């Protein structure tokens, strides 16, 4: 659906997007994740055809967004950052206006507006003035606008920013309901959002795509360096010797806990699950074991790990 | 075409659904009223050989309207869309840049012409109550409105350009006021320059004052019409280039 190859965007003297390539298949929900200033919005602006790339090509459904702009735009529903709307217009009036701009006929635009208003839960506020709506409703109006011409690809730039938890939930549910029928590209810097909604994550930083995989795979990849936490009642010296002698443990850290317990943080050789080994060891030596957990890396760890070296490099 | 009409309708609603729009109309009506009362007072004291339309245009209020109204009307056009971000949603639909510029210009022009309607009423009142022939006929009124229309085209295209180059409405209004003022001042420059130089041969064509004078007498000079129309297209072309500039910046 989307083919980005060697996309570079340079603003006067500053590199915003640096030679990125990725593809998105039809029906996928892909999250573009990264800190502020990573180049997410710029990428989306180029994808939507608002700005051309400095170099590289972007194709949407096979159409170049710059050279076949009209065909590409027909297939893209774009909601820019901060969801800009005309505050003095009424919801229905605005959506009809947008539908007409996007080339829908008079009759067709009417029925499409009805459909998207139903879909986005805007039935009750059709006559309200946009400027007087709550932020959650405004966001839905923006989404309805992106959907009104039945685009194959929907690009949403930070769709849940500034909403309260209830509104975030409803917007997320709405986006999730688009899966399958539409291809969705969302940008965000909120991690749980990506974990919840997206089938695939692209982590962007400093204008580059640093990782691209499913949230599960990214976590799996991190499990290579995963830790096992064990709280064991045993002499500290014996514990240290035991960990030293285990070839699977690459790194460990023993610290005193309450009473006679020691907390051991063990880092295993890649992919190895230490839990059984630790349990067997405790059983053999008759040590009391009260906790044995493998800390699962959240996407947050992935994110921090992936973006960290570069951050330091920059500073 | 229907997309253009949709855009035009949206531009007009932006004028007529806002308080600003009515404030502008009210201010213009006030200034027209002022110039009306000035004309009436003058007519009451001395007889004038000039047609009433010419008297109207020669009051200061007339030029105040022309110079001030256009920047205020046009400052919003592009600057507000850029500041609020709606420019992005607008430009990512299938409509082309040309349509956007044309719709914004036409919307502002229609609003401008509507704002000038009270003048017709003033002229009608003078015509109705005057005992003798005062040179008020289709020719002079038509000529005057043609002049108002052409000057409006020029100043509003200036305003469109000013609004397109910035995202601050304030800056847009300033720039278009300064541009309009410079055009207007060329009339005085023509008088100040020594006769015979090359410049004095060119500048009379920019003399808005004299041009409006002949329009108000019902004289339509093709050269002047061509000048206004081409200047308008020139500034609209510049506006279009600025709007397109995001493509090659």
Structure description:
- The complex is a heterodimer of chains A (315) and B (249).
- Chain A has 315 residues and is α/β, with parallel strands linked by helices.
- Chain A has two domains: 2-221, P-loop containing nucleotide triphosphate hydrolases (Rossmann fold); 227-295, Alpha-Beta Plaits.
- Helix content of chain A is 37%, strand content 29%.
- Chain A has a six-stranded mixed beta sheet, with helices on both faces. Chain A has a four-stranded antiparallel beta sheet with strand order 2-1-4-5. A four-stranded antiparallel beta sheet of chain A has the order 12-13-11-14, with helices on one face.
- In chain A, helix 6 (165-176) links the parallel strand 7 and strand 8 (183-188).
- In chain A, helix 3 packs across helix 4 and helix 4 crosses helix 5 (135-147).
- Chain A is elongated and about 80 Å long.
- With 249 residues, chain B is mostly helical.
- Chain B has one domain (2-247).
- The radius of gyration of chain B is 19 Å and the shape is globular.
- Chain B starts with a helix and ends in a 5-residue tail after the last helix.
- The A-B interface holds A 12, 45, 48-52, 69-70, 73-74, 76, 78-82, 84-86, 88-89, 97-98, 100-103, 106, 145 and B 2-3, 6-7, 10, 13-14, 17-18, 84-95, 246-249.
